[in-house]
Amino acid sequence: MGSTSFNMPSVKLTSTVMGCVVALHLLTAIVLVMVKTPVITIKPLEITPPIEIQFVSEVTTIAEPVMAVAEVEPIKAPKPQSVSVPEAKPEPKKAVQPVVRKEKPKPQVDTKPDTTTTKIVESKPVIKQPIKSQESDAAAQASALAADNERKILAAQTEKANQQTHAKAMREAQAAADTKAKADREAQAVSDAKAAQAARAKAEAATREKANQQAAAASNTPVNFTATNANWASAPSFSFPARARRGARSGETFRVVLVLQVNKQGSIDNVSLAQSSGNAALDRDAQQQVLSGKFKPFTKNGVPVVGNVTLPISYAAP
């Protein structure tokens, strides 16, 4: 698993620093735009307006040519003020003399500007190309810086995303491994529980088998019971035998005690005489008559056993 760099600045701090840098560059560009660029002032040529000179006989107008200046707004010169020469008062007629035409003297033009009539407009050409170039350079630098910062931010975000993805994949792999290990432990626990249950069942079966064997061995040994513990499934019919009447008086009572061996099914396997009635014929008939009956099986601890029961039988002579 790759280690996460804890010294790398946070994305929020990086974004804040970038915003401050971009704002500082924009502020610098605005200040550069607002700075007043020195304007080259081109003074226009002094233009002398035309001067009219009026003479008595003829007025000649001499105008100086106007030189055009490149990239200077045209100047509307005010209408030239005509200089009026006051007419001379007529003199009294004299003798007519021939008029001699003189050459026209060249008027002297004062080259000094007439501040009253000349309007000098200062041209302020705006040189925009350098400002645009500076703005373009500042904008390009700001754009390059912003692009560089954005690339750095994107690289940092990509690196962080890759680290997060790697960490997530490692966590998922660890979680899957833990889940598999837990499932294996649970499966092993279930298997162990089943094995333990099977072992317990086998042990219990062996214990029951041994107990049954012991009970069977114990049940083959006759157990003594009294007549009160014996229950007839089908009782025999006891009657005074005819051959025993010869030596008996009417109403005389005879008592015979027999010992019966009863098997696990309740049948009588053996009959023995425990006490005689004094009449041999009656004793023999009593042993024969009791064999027609059947007992309910005798049990001990819930297991059928062989039982010996002592049964007294009373007879009354007819």
Q: Could you tell me the strand content as a percent range?
A: 15-25%
Shape: rod-shaped
At the first level of CATH, what is the class of the domain at 223-316? Alpha Beta
Instruction: Calculate Rg over CA atoms.
Output: 77 Å
Our count of helices gives: 3
Report the CATH superfamily of the domain at 223-316: TonB
- As laid out across the biggest beta sheet, the strand order is 3-10-5-6
Q: How many angstroms does the end-to-end distance come to?
A: 114 Å
Main sheet characteristics: 4 strands, mixed
Average pLDDT number: 77
Structural class: alpha+beta
Q: What is the N-to-C order of secondary-structure elements (H for helix, E for strand)?
A: HEEHEEEEHEEEE
What's the architecture of the domain at 223-316, going by CATH?
2-Layer Sandwich
Low-pLDDT residue spans: 57-72, 82-86, 115-122
CATH topology of the domain at 223-316, anyone?
TolA/TonB C-terminal domain
Percent helix, as a range, is: 25-40%
